[in-house]
Amino acid sequence: MRMVVVLLSVMMVYVLLMDAVVESTAEFDPYKVLGVTRSASQAEIKKVYKRLAKEWHPDKNKNPEAEDMFIKITKSYEILTNEEKRASYNRYGQTDNTHPYGRGHYGFHHFHDNFYFDESFFHFPFNNKGGRDFADSKYTLHFNQYVNEVVPDSFKRPYLIKITSDWCFSCIHIEPVWKETVQELETLGIGIGVVDVGYERRLSNHLGAHQTPSILGVVNGKVSFFHYAVVKGHLMQFVEDLLPQRLVEKVTDKNNQEFLKSWHELNKPHVLLFDQVPSVPLLFKLTAFANKDYVQFGYVDQGLSETADLLRKFNINTYAPTMLVFKEDVEKPADIIQAKGMKKQIIDEFISNNRFLLAPRLVNQKLFDELCPVKQFHRRRKYCVLLITGEEESFATGNEAFLSLASTNTNDVLRFAYVYQRRQQPLCDVLLQNKDGTPPQVVILERRNEAGKILYKPILGGWNGSKEDKHKLLEELERLQKDPSILNYDAILPELNNEFASMFLIRWIYTAFDYLSEIIDDLLHNNWREMMPLMSLLFSALFILFGTVVIQAFSDSSEEKQRKAKSNETAKTENGSPNTSNTSSSRPPKKSFVEVTELTDITYTSNLVKLRPGHINVVLVLTDATKNILLSKFAKEVYSFTGSLTLHFSFLNVDKHGEWMTAVLEYAQDAVQIDTDEDEVSGRKADYTGYVLALNGHKKYLCLFKPVYTGEDLDSKPEEEGGGSRSRKGVARSRSTTLQIHHKLDRLGLWMERLMEGTLPRYYVPAWPGLDKITVNK
C-alpha cells in the first residue's frame, strides 16, 4: 500500500511538471507578440517587427522587461518569416524547436525512448535572462569587436568561435563538451568567442556561418570550419591544425649545429625545448606562433636515441621539460628554464626576456622601433650603440670585437646593434654625413620622435675592434650617463629597408599551399556554399584562358591563309600579272622597300575600277621632271604603312593623263577651288604636282592630299603665302628648287594616319573616267 502511494505521488509530480512545461510553451504566441493576424503577409510582419524592435531595443528602452520582450519579438519574427516553422505553429501550436518533445514528426525523440531528463529538458529561451548561457556571455563577440580586435590578434594566437542561437537545442547538447574544451584552451592562450545569430546576424554572415551550431577557427585572419563530431579530442586537434606548418623544427644530433648556427642568417635567438613526448606540445606550438617574428623554435624528443648526444652535451634532466635559449654563442645557452608542468605565464616571461640577440642586425623598421624606442620621458630614456659595418671578411675582426663588448653589457638603458652599409645605404648616408671616413664606424644615438628625428654622436677614429677603440667607446658611454648633451648632432632618419622582403616568393608559395589545403578540405566536406565564390573565379579564369587559346588559334589560321593568298598574288605579279597589291601580311613592314606601280591604261582596271572591296590605292601625282624626287620622298613617308593588306601604292604621270586628273578633281571642287581660281587669274594651267589621291574603287570615292611646303628655304617661298605681285609669283616658280619639290610631301605621313583612322573627307565619284587618252604636251 505504501508503495502505491509513493508511485502515485511521483506520477502527480510528473504530471504537474508536464503541465507547467506545456503551459509555459502555450503562453508564447508569436502572433500575439507581434500583434498581427494569422493571415498577415510577410511585408506586414516585417513592418511590425521593425517598429517593435526599435521600440523595445534594450539600448533605448530602460524598462526592466525590455530585454525579454525584445527576445520574444525577435523569435516571433524568426518563426513567422520561416514558412516551415509558421506552418508547424499554425498546425500544432508550436514549431519543431519550441518544444523539447514536440508532437510533430519527431514524436518523443527527445525522451531518448524513455523518461530520462537531461539539462536541456527545462532549458527554454525565456527561462534565463536573454536566453543565453551566463558562461558564454563573457565570450560574446560583436561585428566591430571581431574586425578591430579578433582579426588583428589572430596573427598572434588562434581563435575558436562557436555560432549559436537561443532556439538551437543542438547547441545545448554540445554545451558540456564546449565548456570543458574552452576551460583547457583558455589556459593555453587560445582566444574564445561566441556569436549569437539572433543578435549578430551580420557577423555570422561575414564569417560564412549559415547554420547553428557551428564551430570555426580564425588564424591570420583566415576562417576555417570544424566538420567533425564535437568531442574534446577533435576540438583540440582542430585548434592544433589551425596553426601554420613549420613553426617548430625537430632537432636531433645530426642537425642541431645547423639549426643553432642559423642565428646569423635569420637574425633571431633560437629556443630548444627538451621533453619526453614524441609530438610537440600544443603549448609550445602556440608560443612559437605568437613569437615567430622574434625567435626560432626547435624541439628535442628525449625518447629518441638520435638525441642522446644533445642531452649529454647540455646536461639535460630528463624528468622535467627543459627550455634553452641560444643567442650568438651556439655552444653555451644564454638562458635556461626547467620545471614540471610548465605554465604559459612562465614560458611567456622567459621568451619575452630573450627576444633579441645581444647585438642584432637592424633588418627592418619594426625591429629598430623595438630595440631603440622613441624617448617618452626622462626615466625611459634609451640609447642605441650602432655599428656601421660590412659583410666582407675584412670586417669580421671588428664585428666580433663589437659583439664581445655587447655581451658584457648589463645596462638596460643601452642597446647594441649593427647594420650593413650596403643593405641600409640611406640610413648610413645620414649618420656618416658629418664625419670623414668609411665603415666600420660606431654611432651612439637617441630617438626623439616617431617622425625619425634623432640625436647622435659618432665615435671619432672609426672602429677596428682594438683595445683603444673599446676603451674610447666605454668612456663615451660613461660620459653619456652623466651628460646626455654630448649627443651634439641631430638628423631625420629615413625608414629602414626590409631586408627580408626578398622572401616574398617563399611566403607566397606557403600561402598558396594553405589555400590549396583549404580548398581540398572544403571539397571533402562538401562545403559548397563557401566554395562557390572560389569555384566561380576558377571557372571564369579557365573560360577566359580557353577562349583566348581558341581565338588565337583561329586568328593564326586566318593569317596563314591570307599569307598564302598573298604569296600567290605576288607570284602572279612577278609573272606579269596586273595586280599591284602590297605583299605585306601584317602591320609592321616586312620589306625594305615600297612597291609603287604606275597607273596606266593597262593597270587602270585592276588597280582602281575592279579593286577589291575595302582596299584603297594611294596614288602620287607627278611629272617627268619631278618623278625621281617625289617618288623617293613618297616612299619614305608611306613606308610605315606598307604592312597593311588593304593599301596599294601607285603614281600617275600628270604630263600624260592631265585630262583624267582634271575630270576626277571636278568632284572635289571644295578642296581645289582656291588653286583653280588662282591659276585662272595667272593665266596658266593648274599644277597638280605632289597631289596624292586615296582611291576606293569599290565604293567610288576619293580622299585628297594637297602639298604644303614646310621647308625653310628663304630664297624660295611656298605658293600658299600669296600677297605678292603676279611677276613675283612667276619668279618664284622659275626659281623652284629640288628642295622645294622635295618638301611638298612633308605632311603626307600625318595625312596617311588620318586616312587609316577614317577621319578624312570623302568625295564620291559617280563613275570613274577612262584613262585611255594621253594629254599632248604643249
Automatic annotation (TrEMBL):
GO terms for biological process: autophagy. The keyword Acetylation does not apply. Residues 577-587 have a biased composition (Low complexity). Gene3D superfamilies: DnaJ domain, Glutaredoxin. Residues 561-590, 714-735 are annotated as: Disordered. It is a single-pass type IV membrane protein. Residues 561-572 have a biased composition (Basic and acidic residues). The keyword ATP-binding does not apply. One of its GO terms (cellular component) is endoplasmic reticulum membrane. It is found in: Endoplasmic reticulum membrane. The chain crosses the membrane at residues 534-554. Pfam families: DnaJ (PF00226), Thioredoxin (PF00085). Residues 29-93 form the J domain. PANTHER family: DNAJ HOMOLOG SUBFAMILY C MEMBER 16. Plays an important role in regulating the size of autophagosomes during the formation process. This is DnaJ homolog subfamily C member 16. The lineage of its organism: Eukaryota, Metazoa, Chordata, Craniata, Vertebrata.
